[in-house]
Amino acid sequence: MRRNNSFEISSILCVTKLYFLVVAWLCVAPFAALAQPDASLGAREEAALTAAAEKVAPSVVQIRTIGGLDVVEGTILADGPTTGLVISPDGYVLSSAFNFVQKPASILVTFASGKQAPAELVATDHSRMLVLLKATGVADLPVPSFAPTNEIRVGQWATAIGRTFRADRTNVTVGIVSAVNRMFGKAIQTDADVSTTNYGGPLVDIQGRVLGILVPMAPQATSEVAGVEWYDSGIGFAVPIAPLAERIEQMKKGKDQRSGLLGIGMKPENPHSSPAELAVVRPDSPAGKAGLKKGDKITEFNGKAIHSQTDLRFAMGTLYGGDTAHVVVIRGDERIERDVKLIAELPAFRHAFLGMLPVREVPRDAEKEKAQGEAKDAKNSKDAKPGQDSPAAAKGERATGVVVRMVYADGPAAQAGVKPGDRITKINESKIGSVDDAIQAVNNLTAEAKVAVQVVREEKSLELTLTAANLPTDVPNDLPPARKPLANVVEKGVQPGKSSDLKLPEFQHSCRIYVPADSSPRRELGVVLWIQSSADSKPDDTIRKWQSICDRDGIIFMIPTAKDADHWERTDLEYLHRLLQQVTTKYQTDPRRIVVGGVGNVGALAWPLAMASRSTVRGVIAIAAMPPRQLQIPPNDPARRLAVFAAIPPKKDTAAAFGQSLKTVSDAGYNVSTLTTNDVTGNLNELNLEELARWIDTLDRF
Questions:
Q1: Looking at 274, 306, 341, which one is the last position of a domain?
Q2: What is the pTM of this model?
Q3: Which DSSP category does 522 fall into?
Q4: Residue 152 covered by a domain
Q5: Which of 30, 153, 268, 680 has its CB surrounded by the most CB atoms within 10 Å?
C-alpha cells in the first residue's frame, strides 16, 4: 500500500513537474523562436557571402608588374601585386587602368590554380578606366557570370574581392551597393572598402555574380589616378561589365576605347541649374559638321529630356566614339533635329585671333555712377543739348559693343582697316556687348576662317571682312592705357597700396596679399597667385618688386606659404583653390586676368593648380618651373582659354628639358610664350618683369 501511495505521489510529482515544464516551454518558446531565426539568418548571410566569394574566386587573378614610373600626378604608385578578373577561357583578363598607369615593362599573371603566365596589355578603355590583358599559354580558365544591370539595386549585398597579399587566397570586404548610375552613368557605388590592392578585382553580389570591375573614379577628372584618394573611405566604384560586350570585342582587336565627343563647349556656369546652351561649337567637330551653332540649346539627347548641362553629361556619359546620337536643339523659335556621329578624338584646338586688344570698360555700377554725375543737369533726351551725354548715358546704360584699345601690327584687324577707338558691335552672327561676348565669338572660329566684323567709327557703321589667325605667342613691346580715366567718381573705403595677411581659418597655411592703390568698384582687378620658396625671396620682398606693376595695371598679388615650411604637396591644391575663391569673392576681379605662377620646383605646383581650376584660371607663369613629369596635360578647352608664360634658364640641359615639356603643352593646343633669362635660377630682371606684366595685360585680346 505504501508502495502504491508512494508510486501515486511520485506520479503526481512527475506529472506536476511535466506540467510546469510544458507551461515554461510555452512561455519561453515564442522568445526562443524570435531569437533562433536571427541567429540562423546571420549564419545564412555569412554562408551566402562566403559562397559568393568562393564562387568567383577561381576567376580572380593576381597581377605583378615590373618597371615603370613610381609617381603619377603626385600619386605614389604601389609596387606590389594588384588584381584582375578572367573574362574568357583563353586568357583575357580585365583590370583597372590605375594598375598600369606606370607603363610597366612586363606583366605577370598568377591564376587561382597557382599557374603563372606572362601577359601583354592589349587595349585600354579610357572612358571607364579599364584595361584588357591577354595571358599567353593558358586555356580552359573559369569565367564568372555577370549580373544584368537591370538587376543591380541600391541596398543589395556587395563584396569587393582581390587577390593581392597572397596568390593562394583572396582578400574580401563586404558592403552594399550604395548608388547606381554614378560618374554620369558609368559606375555603381559601394561602401565596401576598396583599396588600391583590389582595384581591378570584381564587385560581387550575394549570388556570386560579378556586378562590375573595381576602379578609382572622380567626376571632374579623367586620368587613371583620379579618385584614388577615396580608397578605403566607404566610397568605391565599379564599372558594370554586362553592357560592354561589344566594346570588349573591339578591345580584343587592340582598339582603345574613348568617350564620345560632340566638339562643343558650355558656358562656365552652375552645371546643375544652367541650360545646355552651346558657348562654343568647333567647326571641325561632329556638332559643327551637323550644323549646330553657338547659342543653340540642347533640349533632347537620344530621347532624353535635357534641362541642364548636367543632364547632357549624363546623357553622353556612357557613349563612345563611333556611337550615333539623336540631338534636338532650340535656336530662337526653331526646333532642329540632327543625327550626330560622335568622335573619339579631336585634333588639338588652337584659339583663333582677330588682332585686337579691348579697352577695359568700367563695371556697370561705376559707369552708372559716372553717367549720373556727368548728366545730372540733363532731364531727358529731349532736353539734352549738343555735347551732352546721350540718353543711354543719362540712364547709366552701357553703350553696345567693345572699344578697340590696340590693333596688333600686321594682324587680321590691321589688314582689314580696324583702328583704335573703333567699337566692335558684331562678329559674324554674334552681337557684341562685352569683352566676353567678343572672346566667345572668336572661340567659335578657326584660323583661316573668313569673319564678318561690324564696327562703329564716328557714329558710322562699317562692315569689314577679316581672315582669322592663331593667337600669337609674341608679347607686344608697348601698350596703350587699358582704360579711360574717370572723373566725378568718389572713392569710398579704399586702403591703397598695403600688404597684409590673408588667413583662411580652416587651413594652417598663411598668405601675404597686396591690394593695389586703386581697388575701388570702378576697376576690375587682375589676380596673381605666386608660389615660391622662402629660399627664393621673402614674400614682402617679392611684393615690392611687383608693387608698381600692381598699382599701374590693377593686380592683386598673393604669396601663400605652405603649412610645413616649403614642403608643398598635391593636397595643398585645395587651399590654393580656396584662396582664389576668397579673393575673387571679396574684390571686383577681372575674370580674364587671373593667373597662377611661381619659381622652380615649388612653383611647378602652379601647373596642376591651373589645370584643376580651368573655370577660374586664365594663365600659368612658369619661372624655371617645368610641368611635373607625371602631370597629364588635358586637351585645350575651346570655351576656357589658358595661356602660358615660361621663363627658361640658360643652362643647356635644363633648357632642353624645359623646352620639351613646353612642346607637350603646346601640342595640346595651349598658347605658350617664352623668354630665356640670363639668371641660371630663372629669376627675372626688371625688363623681363615688364614683359611678363604686358603678357598679363593682354590676356583679354581677341
A1: 341
A2: 0.78
A3: T
A4: yes
A5: 268
**Do 244 and 271 belong to one domain?**
no
Q: Which amino acid is at 394?
A: A
Please name the amino acid found at residue 556: I
In this structure, are residues 266 and 276 in contact, taking their beta carbons and an 8 Å threshold? yes
Tell me how long the chain is. 702
Residue 278's contacts (CB-CB under 8 Å, 6 or more residues apart) are 264, 265, 266, 287, 292, 293, 294, 295, 296, 297, 298, 329
pLDDT in tens, 193-234: 998 878 999 999 999 999 999 999 887 666 665 666 666 678
Contact assessment for residue 136 and residue 117, using Cβ atoms and an 8 Å cutoff: yes
Cα pseudo-dihedral 152, 154, 155, 156, rounded to 10: 0
**Gap between the Cα atoms of 520 and 489, Å rounded:** 10
Tell whether 561 is covered by a domain: yes
Q: Indicate if the pLDDT at residue 139 is higher than 90.
A: yes
The one-letter amino acid code at 601 reads N
- From the number of C-beta atoms within 10 Å of its C-beta (0-12, 13-18, 19+), residue 91 rates as buried
238 and 333 assigned to the same domain:
no
User: Minimal CA–CA distance to 163: which of 54, 10, 8, 33?
Assistant: 54
Same domain, yes or no: 190 and 271: no
Which CATH number is 290's domain given?
A: 2.30.42.10
Does 631 share its domain with 526? yes
Residue with cell 567699337: 423
pLDDT in tens, 516-552: 877 666 789 999 999 988 777 889 999 999 999 999 9
Closest CA to 628 of 68, 69, 73, 70: 73
* Cell digits of residue 111: 591564376
DSSP sequence for 598-619: EEHHHHTTHHHHHHHTTTT--E
Count the domains in the chain. 3
Three-point CA angle 454, 458, 460, nearest 5°: 45
211 shares a domain with 146: yes
Q: Cell 618688386 maps to which residue?
A: 545
Task: State how far the Cα of 472 lies from the Cα of 701, in Å rounded to an integer.
Answer: 10
Q: Write out the residue range of the structural domain in which residue 203 sits.
A: 56-252
Judgement on whether residues 276 and 139 belong to the same structural domain of the protein: no
Shared-domain flag, residues 208 and 107: yes
Cβ pair 189, 153 in contact under 8 A: no
